[in-house]
Design a protein that fits this description.
The protein is an alpha+beta fold. Helix content is 36%, strand content 25%. It is built from nine helices and 14 strands. A hairpin with a 6-residue loop joins β11 and β12. α1 runs parallel beside α2, α2 crosses α3 and α6 runs antiparallel to α7. The radius of gyration is 19 Å and the shape is globular. The structure holds ligand DP6. Ligand DP6 binds next to α2 and α5.
């Protein structure tokens, strides 16, 4: 009789310095352009997976919110998880039923990349149960095929580049610099806890309809090189202006897509202004946003406290999460959510 296998993986979200926005192959999440991100430490997903090899029947997909008990996952999320379980089971050529339970440490679907950490953790735990043993590049490809492209970056820690790739199979993320080499902090101003109204998937689909899409593509080689160099040289003053410019461009493209996508809330703008004011006072901090209203403020450890206190005072900022660069995922035997 075949044995039951269990594994739990924890993977963190990542914040993109150069964004994945627009795909060559959306189904397989093959991006139009390379992206660069920093893997976080605190905003993470734990995913506990059990494979019951002898059991026929449906997979069980649960989601725990906050400290609550796991409950059946909402349909939209369950469908994506189900498709990924089928994909990985097919690759391994195995049968059996999965029991999956996921818990996020942060507000899901609010531009805090819960899909990236979620699908990275799911991929890691499932391949462990399936005895697949992929190397990091293969793991990144498998996570990417979940459809959440940014999950390709969350299987690594520290500073990560995900090239656009020559072909689908070669399209995986690589480490640029380990977390221990540069301690950057990410102070996140949460201005919205609700799920965003337009998914990133839909954003990628509409991106090329913006008249500014080509302009950003033309800017990207210079930006990518500047970000790579700033990371290599651990130079926040060089990194900051480029990531601000890039985040504004992502939203410019979203806002000018047809039909337009507006992710910002009034408090988003208040945070952007506060960050500019902090800089005028000599406190080095730079803002960036993924596809959502929340603002990530990148700063140095000695400035983190001041930045967090200032953001917490702003009207419309519900919560301030103090995060920073993290070492990457880990996998444990057994189930522990
Ligand atoms: C704006 O298709 O990876 O965050 O599945 O929702 O995580 P999710 O999105 P995905 O697109 C990410 C878009 C982005 C930029 C980025 O992370 O590179």
């Amino acid at each position: 009789m075949s044995e039951t296998t269990q594994a739990t993986a924890e993977a963190a979200a990542n914040i993109a310095f150069i964004k994945y926005w627009g795909a060559r192959d959306l189904e397989q999440a093959v991006p139009q352009n390379p992206s660069i991100s920093m893997t976080l430490r605190r905003c993470s997903t734990r995913c506990a997976v059990e494979l019951l090899p002898g059991e026929p029947g449906d997979d069980e997909i649960l989601l725990a919110v906050g400290d609550g008990p796991p409950a059946p996952a909402p349909a939209a999320f369950a469908v994506r998880v189900q498709a990924h379980l089928d994909r990985l089971r097919g690759i391994a050529g195995r049968r059996g039923r999965f029991r999956v339970a996921t818990r996020n440490s942060f507000p899901a679907a609010a531009g805090l990349a819960s899909s990236a950490s979620g699908f990275a953790a799911l991929t890691l735990a499932v391949v462990e149960c399936l005895d697949l043993h992929p190397d990091t590049a293969e793991l990144s490809v498998l996570a990417r095929r979940s459809g959440s492209g940014s999950a390709a970056r969350s299987v690594l820690g520290g500073y990560v580049e995900w090239p656009a790739g020559e072909g689908e199979e070669k399209c995986y993320a690589k480490e640029l610099l380990p977390a221990a080499a540069w301690d950057l902090r990410d102070v996140i101003a949460v201005v919205e806890r609700e799920a965003k109204k337009v998914s990133s998937l839909e954003g990628h689909r509409r991106a090329a309809t913006s008249p500014y899409y080509g302009t950003r593509q033309a800017e990207l080689p210079r930006r990518l090189e500047a970000v790579r160099r700033a990371i290599r040289e651990r130079d926040l003053s060089a990194l900051g202006p480029v990531i601000e410019e890039e985040a504004i461009d992502l939203h410019l493209i979203a806002m000018s897509s047809r039909p337009p996508i507006l992710y910002w809330k009034p408090a988003t703008l208040a945070v952007l202004e506060a960050v500019r004011d902090l800089r005028e006072e000599g406190i080095e901090a730079y803002s960036t946003m993924d596809a959502g209203a929340n603002v990530h403020v990148i700063t140095l450890p000695e400035r983190e406290e001041t930045v967090a206190a200032r953001l917490a005072e702003l009207e419309g900022v519900g919560e301030v999460i103090r995060d920073g660069v993290g070492p990457g995922p880990r996998v444990e035997a057994g189930l522990s959510l």
